[in-house]
Amino acid sequence: DWEIELNTASASESYVLSGSSMTVRFTGLINGQVYEIRVRAKNSAGFGTFSDAIQSTPYSALLPPRNVKSEVDAQNVKLEWEPPLANGTPVVGYRLEEWNYDATQSIFTGPSSVVQLGVTTSYTFTGLASGEEYKFRIYGISPNGVGNFSEAQVAIENSPDTTTTTTTTT
Fold first, then answer.
1. Which contiguous run of DSSP H or E holds residue 116?
2. Which residues contact 68 (CB under 8 A, 6 or more apart)?
């Protein structure tokens, strides 16, 4: 058997697991709450000593960035967005992807470039080709990794003096 102890600053819970399973899943934990976890084994002589404690902080999946806007000029696309709605999960950065439209296959392919940012909420892709279509994905990054994405699709017009603002969010 195993005994697992789960502690927070305000509470301590203990779970005894029977059998040979070495995996446990805790549910109902609170986003952003720091938990300390220790484990000890039991054999015919009784329980052994607890392991050193590890700390873990659960977070929900990060929601996608909101209100994506794009400003397009001759060879550049400036993207701006708002952080995801708060669900208790902190944003520690953003990942942006550039996808190119393949007219032969009628699909977007990519990503052709990936940019990792801090907590800034704008970025400009430069050196894009006139007359081409692009799709950009913006992902929030939490301490647990990359969350869901928002998307903007734009076309670079052939006229070098054109500035267009488009907003397409998925």
1. strand 107-117
2. 79, 80, 81, 138, 150, 151, 152, 167, 168, 169
Torsion, CA 71, CA 72, CA 73, CA 74, rounded to 10: 160
Q: Which residues of the chain have pLDDT under 50?
A: 165
- Residues 143 and 36: their CA atoms lie apart, in Å, by 17
Identify the residue whose tokens are 């279509």. 133
Question: What is the model's pLDDT at position 18?
Answer: 67
Structure token digits, residue 134:
């692009």
Confidence at residue 105, expressed as pLDDT on a 0 to 100 scale:
95
Residue 153, helix vs strand vs coil: strand
pTM score, whole prediction: 0.71
